[in-house]
């Protein structure tokens, strides 16, 4: 195998890879709406420039009934009326945890999450953002 060949993380560390899958399944079981899960995964994947993940999560979202119009405007979610206040709260949280800006104040973002989601759902969203960032990094490293 060449030094530049893509890593096969699923083969190299299968127990870790399976643990990641199990963690994502636990997040999905926490009660967050599947459409929101897709939006969060897709937005983080866009920010992380993970082409594989963008393609996969766009397809999964469409398969679960998401509209092309909303997906087309996800990158400008703050500036359009396509998303509910609850979705916007989750997308703001996603961007804050994905980009980790040096001077972000998470307190108002947490308050906005609590206005729309239970404590369990907010924790599940936080775990989801962490998981998709992990998957994006694995995906980017393998391509």
Automatic annotation (TrEMBL):
Residues covered by the Carboxymuconolactone decarboxylase-like domain: 14-96
| Keyword field | Oxidoreductase, Peroxidase
Q: Does the keyword section mention Oxidoreductase?
A: yes
Q: Name one GO molecular function term.
A: peroxiredoxin activity
Which residues are in coiled coils?
none
Known InterPro entries for this protein? AhpD-like (IPR029032), AhpD_core (IPR004675), CMD-like (IPR003779)
Q: Where are the bilayer-spanning segments?
A: none
Q: Which PANTHER family match?
A: CARBOXYMUCONOLACTONE DECARBOXYLASE-LIKE DOMAIN-CONTAINING PROTEIN (PTHR35446:SF2), SI:CH211-175M2.5 (PTHR35446)
Put simply, this protein is called Alkylhydroperoxidase
Question: Source species, please?
Answer: Caulobacter radicis
């Amino acid at each position: 195998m060449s030094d530049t060949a893509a890593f096969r993380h699923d083969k190299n560390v299968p127990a870790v890879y399976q643990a990641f899958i199990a963690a994502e399944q636990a997040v999905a079981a926490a009660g967050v709406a599947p459409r929101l899960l897709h939006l969060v995964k897709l937005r983080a994947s866009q920010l992380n420039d993970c082409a594989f993940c963008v393609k996969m999560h766009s397809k999964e979202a469409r398969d679960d009934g998401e509209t092309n119009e909303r997906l087309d405007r996800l990158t400008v979610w703050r500036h359009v009326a396509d998303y509910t206040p609850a979705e916007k709260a989750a997308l703001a949280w996603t961007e804050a945890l994905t980009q980790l800006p040096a001077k972000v104040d998470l307190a108002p973002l947490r308050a906005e999450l609590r206005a729309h989601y239970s404590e369990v759902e907010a924790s599940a969203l936080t775990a989801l953002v962490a998981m998709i960032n992990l998957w994006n990094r694995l995906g980017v490293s393998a391509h």
